[in-house]
Prior knowledge:
With 190 residues, the chain is of the alpha+beta class.
Amino acid sequence: LLSFSPFRGPLFSINLLSSFVEQEEMVKGTLVIATLLVAAVAVLSAPVVRGPLHASCKLTWTFPSASCAQASDALNAQIKNLSTSDCTAFGGEKCLYSLSSYQAGSQIKAVHETPVKHYKDDLTLSFSASGSGCSVAGYSTSETWYAVLDYSTNYCNLHNLIAGVTEYDWSESTSDSICTQYSKRDCDKY
């Protein structure tokens, strides 16, 4: 009582192939979900970076009794003073500054190059009158596109300039939220 159907063989092959394709799609879907889960775990377990997403620093200096022309002249003189390639003269990375542009009392643009790895950071100082004094918005940012943490190098790029200004009183304002690793600064080294 066996019967034979000539269509049973090929139809069975099509059903088997269809079942195989469905299983392959299910495996692909599972792999996508597993990849997303691994990525989510990696993101959630990574150390939290507080502050800018790119290595940089924003700060404000207030010169209560110096005009913006005086403040910009003093900072411009510091850039020239620290333009030496002799990094032992002042210690740390207090060298290799170069002036890009200077508009007295208005804006200074400069570059600082680290002496060992030769990374470059762009500096912008913007000056605005504030009462009888001057307010300076300082910004330093790494030219290296992938830089996230910088051991406070961008802060020190700016601090090393202002630390040499002794002819005028000034105060500084910044924080970890706008200045990469500010609380871990070591400007004797960087």
